Amino acid sequence: MKSRCAAQASTEFLVICIVLAAMLGMGLGPHGGLLGALLEAMRTAYARFSFALSIPT
Hints:
With 57 residues, this protein is mostly helical. The protein has two helices and no strands. Helices cover 79% and strands 0% of the residues. The longest helix has 24 residues, at 2-25. The relative contact order is 0.08.
């Protein structure tokens, strides 16, 4: 009985994660979804970080 409850909880968790990922990935704004904006911000931050590392001292 205990393993059945654990399986149900993991299924519910999976469904919640899928719904959250779908909500983040949907194009709610003019430039796409929140996930796209987050990835673009991370891409910009990494480009700036790698540029700063490449500057000779």
